[in-house]
Amino acid sequence: MGRSVRLALNALLGLTVAMSVVVDSHAQDKKITLGFAQVGAESAWRTANTVSVKQAAKDAGINLKFSDAQQKQENQIRAIRSYIAQKVDVIAFSPVVESGWEPVLEEAKKAHIPVVLTDRNIDVKDKSLYVTMIGSDFLEEGRRAGRWLEETYKNNPGPINIAELQGTVGSAPANDRHSGLMEIIKNDPKFKIIASQSGDFTLAGGKQVMEAFAKTYGKQINVVYAHNDDMALGAIQAMEEAGMKPGTDVKVVSFDATKGGFQAMIAGKINVDVECSPLLGPQLMSAVKDIVAGKTLPKRIVTNETVFPMNVAAQVLPQRKY
Ligand code: GYE
């Protein structure tokens, strides 16, 4: 091979190497890193939510850093701080409770890292601390449950005594599912909440609280209003052990509409399940991409949901994804 040919080949080779270096680093530049601070693994809803986030990140080609806070705010704050230190492109989290987020969100803001809230909302004055909130309208869910009660008991003079199993104390879904119900029943004196306690959104928690309710109130209870399916399932166990009949003697109202909730409806033990979708992953990833691309997002992205009375459960269950 002549010298000039060799030189030309080398130059060409050099150019391709250089080009591929440029292309590679460009591709790396474009791979978005998202830090996601999950609440925990307290319920079937949460498990489905985690699967959805992980799968959607994979599908979207987003590099996901994931942490599980075991339902403790301090763990979530620690995870967010570590994402700030790692200089991720976007931080998303599902806030375990509504209050106490200002300091860590100020830190993210100072570091110019945009924050997306998923699933649960927070209570902050300065709305610029986050870009958008993607999730359900828990207040509306509570109203839907309340309207179902109004309709179900419209020909019954009452009193209708409700035992409430609340979600995690201070969490948006616990606060709002309670307030939504109250909004509907507050002007109807036949409805009375005779007992209300947190079961922390877990099956064990729901069972334990219901055992105590059964001992104290027994047959006085007409309705169990459980803030999620896991607690409803725990309460069903407790009622059956106490000789009560969930679904017939005691009506059971629940939230999430998981497969477990549907199976309990088919078995006649949950009377109505208000849907709350955990499949937020795809919406989150598209929001993350839009933010990185500099697009403006709406401050609130609400998930579409419905209500399932027990008589449709058998027909709908095969289509349920969580
Ligand atoms: O209802 C419950 C979960 O924040 C909507 O958290 C979510 C709630 C859901 O543990 O099952």
Describe the structure.
- The structure is a single chain.
- With 322 residues, the protein is an alpha/beta fold.
- The protein has two domains: 31-136 and 278-304, 3-Layer(aba) Sandwich (Rossmann fold); 138-276, Response regulator (Rossmann fold, 3-Layer(aba) Sandwich), CATH 3.40.50.2300.
- The chain has eleven helices and twelve strands.
- It has a six-stranded parallel sheet with strand order 2-1-3-4-5-11, sandwiched between helices. A six-stranded mixed sheet has the order 7-6-8-9-10-12, sandwiched between helices.
- Helix 2 packs across helix 10.
- Bound molecules: beta-D-fucofuranose (GYE).
- Residues 42-43, 45-46, 119-120, 173, 201, 228, 230, 255-256, 276 line the site of beta-D-fucofuranose.
- Beta-D-fucofuranose is lined by residues 42-43, 45-46, 119-120, 173, 201, 228, 230, 255-256, 276.
Keywords summarizing the entry:
alpha/beta, Rossmann fold, elongated, six-stranded mixed sheet, 11 helices, 12 strands, 2 domains, binds beta-D-fucofuranose, six-stranded parallel sheet, 322 residues
